[in-house]
């Protein structure tokens, strides 16, 4: 476990280092800018806000950390606690007040300000802007670079800010939850842990497990669909996941019966959906896991995420229950290697780093961010910035009731119409699998669409049976020679 070091400089964690090099290659990219816009109907006193933010940054070192280059590589440099800058915008002074309502202006302005490049070498990874003069209450933008924060940490930041603001406003001492360990402590410990014989063995074993699996996965061409479900997307599209009511009723019971979590049961259904769309029975899907390894890190602000590629082996003749057992076993294997940095697997497999290496699809737990309201603050939605991290990511919150979630996608790879069709197939197939988990997966129905697929057919580029068999024989032959 990490220990408190109280050092002013520290190495980057492996995940941070990956983001640092991505930013160095494209400093203007906004993919890893994380904006949160919150509003306080009672108004925001800027002096109180500055004092509250200063108290929060004093508690969390990562919010006052820069990432300069030393001896040819990046390091974390932790600044002493000090005042946090807050920019103030009065919406009553803007020239376009007659043509654009206040809230629309703030949303547009917040997105533009969030897209501004970060100076990670010399400036903190946190930016704060307040808009005053709105009829519905003043608004606050907290924009943090991903190198310093994840969604869990973002919830901590907002909660601590609300607590600190209330305390300063009341004239009482700011009492925030204790943070036993800072992120720099974790990063230094992780570097030491990865430099051990056991870590190297785990890495080598996982590379051997993944070798031979395709490192490029493409879904089929878009089937005919409802034109009304198309929409404008730039670099990152979002589509809400809507599951049939029967899924909420059956998911917890089937998960208990099949001895898997609801998340893994949904992952099994997604794997069969991908098999139908891609025509491949063996492929890789990434999942994002947190590296918070103990209660000492529960209140630590930082970037604790790692992508773990999972092997997907979907036999068309297997029952859905059998597929769930395979998925459970592979997820257990993946968890054993959860601390192995994704970049090391990419390097060990000699995969090209161009584009999205190793895994183009991801299936992860929907991250827990700030609540829609914390104390007197409420969240305003800000669309995510920049290009999607994967071609397509399914994010699912599968608990005891009806699951929820969202599909994030790159419209340049998968147009919204294609993603909408994939959504329908996945949710329909999951509902059918829950109704009868003993049925072979190849017989599970996909969604009926005009001109689309029917039960048990491949959705994607049209190919007759002979062409399909030949393509699979050719792929098998290549694997055998490898």
Name a few traits of the molecule.
482 residues; alpha+beta; 6-stranded mixed β-sheet; 4-stranded antiparallel β-sheet; 12 helices; 16 strands; globular; disordered C terminus
Word description of this protein:
By secondary structure, the chain is an alpha+beta fold. Helix content is 37%, strand content 18%. It contains 12 helices and 16 strands. It has helices spanning 14-25, 46-59, 102-114, 151-170, 183-194, 197-210, 245-258, 262-278, 320-336, 342-348, 416-435, 465-481; strands at 9-11, 33-40, 65-66, 69-70, 73-78, 87-90, 126-132, 138-145, 237-241, 282-290, 305-313, 361-365, 373-374, 377-380, 392-397, 404-409. The strands form 4 sheets. It has a 6-stranded mixed sheet with strand order 6-7-8-2-14-13. Strands 1, 3, 4 and 5 form a 4-stranded antiparallel sheet that branches. Helix 8 (262-278) crosses helix 9 (320-336). The longest helix is centred in the first third of the chain and has 20 residues, at 151-170. It is globular, with a radius of gyration of 24 Å. The two termini are 40 Å apart.
């Amino acid at each position: 476990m990490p220990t408190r070091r109280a050092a002013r400089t520290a190495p980057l964690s492996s995940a941070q280092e990956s983001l640092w090099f991505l930013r160095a290659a494209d400093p203007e990219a906004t993919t890893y800018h994380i904006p949160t816009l919150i509003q306080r109907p009672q108004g925001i006193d800027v002096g109180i806000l500055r004092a509250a933010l200063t108290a929060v940054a004093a508690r969390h070192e990562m919010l006052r950390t820069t990432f300069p280059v030393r001896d040819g590589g990046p390091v974390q440099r932790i600044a002493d606690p000090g005042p946090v800058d807050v920019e103030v915008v009065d919406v009553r002074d803007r020239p376009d007040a007659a043509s654009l309502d206040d809230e629309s202006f703030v949303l547009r302005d917040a997105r533009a300000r969030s897209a501004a490049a970060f100076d990670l070498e010399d400036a903190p990874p946190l930016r704060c802007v307040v808009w005053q003069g709105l009829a519905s209450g003043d608004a606050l933008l907290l924009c943090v670079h991903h190198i310093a924060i994840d969604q869990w940490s973002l919830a901590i930041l907002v909660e601590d800010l609300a607590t600190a603001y209330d305390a300063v406003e009341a004239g009482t001492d700011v009492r925030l939850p204790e943070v036993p360990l800072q992120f720099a402590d974790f990063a230094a410990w992780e570097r030491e842990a990865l430099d051990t014989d056991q870590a190297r063995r785990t890495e080598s074993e996982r590379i051997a497990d993944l070798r031979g699996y395709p490192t490029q996965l493409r879904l089929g061409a878009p089937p005919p669909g409802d034109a009304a479900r198309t929409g404008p997307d730039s670099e990152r599209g979002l589509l809400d996941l809507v599951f049939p009511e029967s899924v909420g009723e059956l998911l917890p019971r089937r998960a208990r019966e099949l001895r898997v979590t609801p998340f893994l049961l949904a992952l099994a259904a997604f794997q069969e959906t991908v098999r139908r769309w891609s025509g491949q029975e063996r492929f890789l899907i990434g999942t994002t896991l947190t590296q918070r390894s103990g209660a000492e890190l529960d209140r630590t602000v930082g970037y604790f995420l790692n992508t773990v590629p999972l092997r997907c082996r979907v036999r068309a003749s297997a029952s859905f229950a059998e597929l769930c057992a395979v998925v459970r076993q592979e997820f257990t294997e993946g968890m054993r290697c959860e601390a192995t940095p994704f970049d090391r697997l990419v390097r060990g497999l000699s995969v090209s780093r161009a584009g999205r290496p190793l895994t183009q699809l991801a299936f992860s737990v929907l991250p827990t961010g700030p609540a829609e309201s914390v104390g007197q603050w409420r969240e305003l939605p800000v669309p995510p910035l920049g290009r999607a991290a994967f071609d397509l990511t399914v994010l699912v919150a599968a608990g005891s009731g009806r699951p929820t979630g969202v599909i994030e996608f790159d419209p340049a790879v998968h147009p919204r119409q294609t993603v909408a069709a994939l959504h329908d197939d996945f949710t329909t197939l999951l509902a059918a699998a829950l109704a009868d988990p003993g049925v072979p997966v190849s017989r599970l129905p996909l969604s009926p669409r005009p001109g689309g697929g029917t039960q048990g057919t491949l959705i994607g580029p049209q190919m007759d049976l002979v062409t399909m068999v030949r393509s699979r024989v050719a792929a098998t032959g290549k694997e055998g020679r490898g």
